[in-house]
Amino acid sequence: MYKLFGLIASAYGIIAVILGAFGAHALKTKLDDYQHQIYDKAVHYQFFHIVALMAVFLLSKFYPSKALNLSGWFFTMGTLLFSGSLYLLATRHLLGLDNFSKVLGPVTPLGGLSFIVGWVFLFVAILKIKA
């Protein structure tokens, strides 16, 4: 199971670099300053949680635990919900998703909550490691 989180982190890394470059170049003149801030926040949080997933991947090889598995899944879902919803919110007018703002807005905090839960499970897993 531990290898899966390394693969997810790597895939999220590929996507973050592509979307970061796309946002910086292709969307440069298509988004206003506020939309760029939202888009950049999505990229940053995605990268932060790629690092967290890599930590889960590395720790899981030597200290497998249910808490680490849960941490990895919450980081995975948090990235999808938090960053994914922010990407869509920032570009909704370009994608014709203006009517989905009321749906996308509440998804972002659910992603943030997933991040928090993932960090709590990582904390618990590390506490249980006997050094």
Give the helix/strand layout:
Elements: H1 2-25, H2 33-62, H3 66-95, H4 101-127
Helix pairs in contact: 1-2, 1-3, 2-3, 3-4
Concise overview:
The chain is an all-alpha fold and 131 residues long. Helix content is 85%, strand content 0%.
Any overview of this molecule?
By secondary structure, the chain is mostly helical. The chain has one domain. It contains four helices and no strands. The chain has helices at residues 2-25, 33-62, 66-95, 101-127. The protein is elongated.
Structure characteristics:
4 helices, about 130 residues
Q: Structural class of the secondary structure composition?
A: mainly alpha
Order of helices and strands: HHHH
- Tell the overall outline: elongated
User: How many DSSP-defined strands?
Assistant: 0
Q: Could you say how many structural domains there are in total?
A: 1
| Rounded radius of gyration (Å) | 16 Å
What proportion strand? under 5%
Q: Main beta sheet, described?
A: none
The span between the termini is 23 Å
Helix content: over 70%
Q: Unreliable stretches, pLDDT < 50, 5 or more residues?
A: none
Task: State the helix count.
Answer: 4
Mean pLDDT: 95
